[in-house]
Amino acid sequence: LLSIHSFSSLITALLLIASSCLVSARAFNTIVIDAGHGGKDIGGNYGKVYEKHLALDTAKRMEYMLKRKGYRTRMTRTSDVFLSLQKRASIGNRYSNSIFVSIHYNYTYRKAANGIETFYYTSRSKPLAQYIHRATIKKTRAFDRGVKFARYYVIRNAKNPAVLFEGGFLQNSRERRAVKRGSYRQRVAEGIVHGIEQYQAARRKGRVR
Fold first, then answer.
1. CA-CA distances (angstroms) from residue 163 to 4, 6, 54, 98?
2. CA 173 from chain center: how many Å?
3. Which residues contact 185 (CB under 8 A, 6 or more apart)?
4. Model confidence over 13-59: pLDDT tens digits?
């Protein structure tokens, strides 16, 4: 028979194991980074400033920082190639315990439109969008266009928390000058990464599921 002390120690050990498993279940272990557009799909553009190039550069900066911090990453594309929306969503869904972050830059016919906005589709994805958005606005001091619901294919068809991030408007001369600078894209990437880290911390503490 176990002594009271031994029984108490056993219960404590079991509780620690259960707690550890719960923390692991809440945390994600893979970040899928989707650089929007690519190849024949240039995305938004103004002159020779192409969204596909800006998105890929930002995604690579994110991947570098995340790997340095010990995160496991998966890029949907690492070069200027075309990928269908179905393929992008499929890559994201291969990893059951992951998040999906799609990187874009905006364009509209209204030259004065400006700012950063972040989109989600499911209520489960909204906290991820909020953390990323707040951190990036703070880092870049860009105009805050808010966190919004949208039905974009890659986030609508994601099985895991997924967001689509828009980092600025290419038709806006001031923002175009900003996003063309590597230093600005670095701040965008740093903001997104910081938001991901905050979201991970919230997951581990059980604040979001």
1. 51, 49, 18, 12
2. 26
3. 54, 57, 58, 61, 167, 179
4. 444 433 433 334 489 999 999 999 999 999 999 999 999 999 999 99
Residue closest to 125 by CA, chosen among 96, 144, 89, 149 = 149
pLDDT of residue 109: 95
Q: Tell me the chain's radius of gyration from C-alpha atoms.
A: 20
- Beta-bridge mates of residue 73: 31
Q: What single string gives the DSSP state of each residue in 127-144?
A: HHHHHHHHHHHHHH---E
- Could you tell me which residues are beta bridge partners of residue 165? 103, 118
Give the model confidence (pLDDT) of 166-179 as tens digits.
999 999 999 999 99
Three-state DSSP state, 112: coil
Mean pLDDT of 68-91: 98
Distance CA 169, CA 161 (A): 25
pLDDT per position as a tens digit, 78-89 = 999 999 999 999
- Other Cβ atoms within 10 Å of 191 Cβ, number: 24
Give the residue from 31, 30, 36, 32 showing the smallest Cα distance to 166: 36
What are the distances in angstroms from CA 136 to CA 27, 47, 117?
Answer: 22, 26, 10
